[in-house]
Specification:
Layout (H helix, E strand, L loop, with lengths): L5 E4 L18 H5 L12 E3 L2 E3 L9 H9 L3 E3 L3 H4 L21 H17 L3 H6 L2 E3 L1 H22 L1 H9 L4 E4 L19 H14 L5
Parallel strand pairs: 1-6
Antiparallel strand pairs: 2-3, 4-5
Helix pairs in contact: 2-6, 6-8
Length: 214
């Protein structure tokens, strides 16, 4: 029995890694990253008893929308002013617009990726504590996969190149490489890891290749 081909990807992947192209796209690894900028407006989602994306905001990446959702699973001591709009004091960076046009590798690595790293950092344990937030870890852990799947499906409806890369990857195993290696939830390495992002991308790929007919 032939072994399944494995393709590794990461937001800082080099262009010389083989295969260099996927469906004719050279920087395909970066474009599979949740850091890649694309304008998405997720539909409302009810997960773990929490309503998310009811505001119909437009986000500049899956990563940005993911961390917006994460703040819905927090509590904070609110002032009277905040009670009128509990989302008004979420970190501003979560709704900051990034131009998604004319992105090349240089712009992605020098401008967009560093911005998305800051987006990711704003919902870290230390940043949340400093801002007075407390994350319901159990509820968020129950919701995070469904939230990510919802956002990836949303991206797939508006990003034709994203669809093209996934379909061109065929039946290969997509591994989101992560420095945490076997301890990683979202990624992994050749030594293991749950590789949840890779698993979800392969699920999206299967949905694109084998759409459900009603």
């Amino acid at each position: 029995m032939s072994q399944q081909v494995k393709h590794k990807f990461f937001s800082k992947s080099g262009q010389n890694n083989k295969p260099v192209q996927m469906g004719g796209v050279t920087n395909w690894r970066k474009k599979l990253s949740n850091f890649w900028s694309v304008q998405i407006c997720p539909t409302p989602l009810n997960v773990a008893g929490i309503q998310i994306f009811t505001e119909q905001h437009t986000f500049s990446s899956v990563e940005q929308a993911f961390h917006w959702a994460k703040f819905h699973f927090t509590t904070q001591q609110l002032t009277n002013d905040h009670v009128m709009d509990i989302y008004s004091h979420y970190p501003d960076i979560l709704l900051q617009h990034v131009d998604s046009k004319n992105i090349d590798d240089e712009r992605f690595l020098q401008e967009i990726r560093p911005f998305m790293v800051k987006v990711k950092s704003c919902s870290g344990k230390g940043a949340m504590k400093k801002a007075g937030y407390s994350l319901d870890v159990q509820k968020w852990n129950e919701a995070r996969v469904q939230v990510t799947l919802h956002l990836l499906r949303t991206r797939a409806t508006v990003d034709e190149e994203f669809q093209h890369i996934l379909c061109a990857s065929g039946t290969s195993y997509l591994l989101h490489t992560d420095r945490a290696g076997p301890r990683s939830f979202w990624g992994g390495s050749d030594k293991g890891g749950e590789n949840m992002l890779g698993q979800l991308l392969m699920q999206i790929r299967n949905e694109l290749v084998n759409p459900v007919k009603f």
